[in-house]
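Mods, move this if it's the wrong board.
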Amino acid sequence: MKLSKGIIQVIIANIINLIISIGNGFFLPKYLSVESYADYKIFILYISYVGILHLGYVDGVYIKYGGKAIDAIKTEELEFEKKVLALFQIIISVPIILFSLFLDDTNLLFAAISILPMNMLYFFKFVYQATGEFKKYRYITNLSTGLVFILNLSFLFIFKIDNSFYYIITQVFVYFFVWFSYENKHKSKAIGNRFTFKEMSQCLKGNIHLGIIIMLGNFMGLWITSIDRWFVKILHSITEFAYYSFAVTMLKLINVVVTAFSITLYNFFCKKPDEEKIIELRKIVLVAGAFIIALIFPIDFIIQIYLEKYIYAIPIIRLLFLAQFILIGINAIYLNLYKASNLQKKYLIQMLVTTIIAFVSNFIMRYLWRDNIAAYAAATIVTAFIWLILCQADLPQYKFSKKEWIFIFLTMLVYCISEYFNVWLGMLIYIVSVIMETFILFPKDTKLVIKLAKEMLNAKEREL
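Not the wrong board. Structure tokens:
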């Protein structure tokens, strides 16, 4: 599949998710009490860590099949790997379920129950991503989020329920339903139910050995981007946690572009493109990131009009969007380069260092800003900058040029200045400034961006 078509497939999936995220992102906090919304977001925080409990098994599958065509993989091999993962996740889930019952923590219990179906769905998604089957990735992604959205709306507007339990149990139910649906759809008789413990052990060890470093790096990446919420959860009130969680939820609105690039480019990098092509793509990602964070302006307006009780989250959202402008290049380009180039150990060391930096920066900002929870969003910006510098130190052949650094700092400056104007005037000033920066600093690359945009639009027309 061509790169532009792959990107557009993922963008279509994420546009649908975007619409759903807008619904969940605005309807839930609007109609649920702050306490119920905060409780629901605690469950969401817990399940964000479920992906590490396969201990790198799925990442090993991802690396093994990266760049291959789905038809080149033996059906019986995939079926066997899938069954081994299911048994492994059952073994992992049982003690966590028992521990949650001992603690009497309902959110942890439902998160533990979600381990098996979530990681089985990750298996399907990672295989589709690695092999460039982005249309299939799109379907499985949209099915889960679509069902959750429909059921949430039913509870909100038909049954008028203000109890986080129903929204949490709905999510768990959907995970199982979608997993069973895909199991039934892709059920194969290529392998029977009988296989030896030795075969299972070899498969388990092989995939974990291949993917555990990437998994640990991904875990640290997750920790880097969620440590701020843990600081707020532990050190601040449930209401402040709701405000901060709402701000984090708004990031989903810009992850349409972030996820599209990060998912698609791994498969592309596995095919070993030349350095010049990668540098061109990096500039495209940088410019796309600058434009996508302009969503802060309509979000600001909607919150002021529609969600006044979360108006205190606006400064946090602004800072988090600015951090995402830096993180999009890291996630889409540099982390994919580590994985595609088999630099797992270097990747792990760098992620460990960045994790420590994230903790220290959050601690320092907490001390400097005292009770202002926006401090943790500012710490995310600091961490993102240092992380970007570390990536370029590890991969010196892909260092930013002076023009790219100028583009970053000018964009951030205009973004901050635009805050002092009327929402729509500020948006106009920001967008015009980014357009001018792009044409002045990247005159040659702008033609490439326009060409890629046309390819993506044509791909979308053919898809629709």
